[in-house]
Design brief:
Radius of gyration: 32 Å
Number of helices: 5
Number of domains: 1
Oligomer: single chain
Family: Belongs to the MscL family.
Membrane topology: Multi-pass membrane protein
Function: Channel that opens in response to stretch forces in the membrane lipid bilayer. May participate in the regulation of osmotic pressure changes within the cell.
Subcellular location: Cell inner membrane; Membrane
GO molecular function: mechanosensitive monoatomic ion channel activity
Strand content: under 5%
Helix content: over 70%
């Protein structure tokens, strides 16, 4: 067998192993789940924070201008300033990403905890012994009676 054929066989064995496939599925599901958490933060959590704080607090648009391009007189929004080349410290976007991370970690923690609990419950409850068929029980009873003197 040539080295190339051996390499292809090794790669195929690796690629179809359960761990590699499980990892690929996990990455794909994780990416999709990340989008769900982003939407949760942007569309649910942040509006609630705004409501509680009594105003329109859009953390993603909070920033501190560190240096302004010479002669800039345009709008003072984050998008316009960065497009113009201003040096901007985007602390609000960082706060939003931190909230995303904390929520994602919290949800994953509860999912893993539920999985471990289900596994523990499955391991605790051993399979109940199968009931002895009636004919076998009857034969055992006859055998035991024949053994008596």
């Amino acid at each position: 067998m040539s080295k190339a054929t051996g390499f292809v066989k090794e790669f195929r064995d690796f690629a179809v192993k359960g761990n590699a496939v499980d990892l690929a599925v996990g990455v794909i599901i994780g990416a999709a789940f990340g989008k769900i958490v982003d939407s949760l933060v942007k569309d649910i959590v942040m509006p609630l924070v705004n409501f509680i704080l009594g105003g329109s607090v859009d953390f993603s648009n909070k920033f501190l201008v560190l240096s302004m391009p010479a002669g800039y007189n345009g709008p003072m929004t984050y998008a316009d300033l960065t497009k113009a080349g201003a040096n901007v410290f985007a602390w609000g976007n960082f706060v939003t990403i931190i909230i995303n991370f904390v929520l994602l970690a919290f949800v994953i923690f509860w999912m893993v905890k539920a999985i471990y609990k289900a596994r523990a419950k499955a391991e605790e409850a051993p399979a109940a012994p199968a009931a002895t068929p009636e004919d076998v029980a009857l034969l055992r009873e006859i055998r035991d009676l024949l053994k008596k003197p």
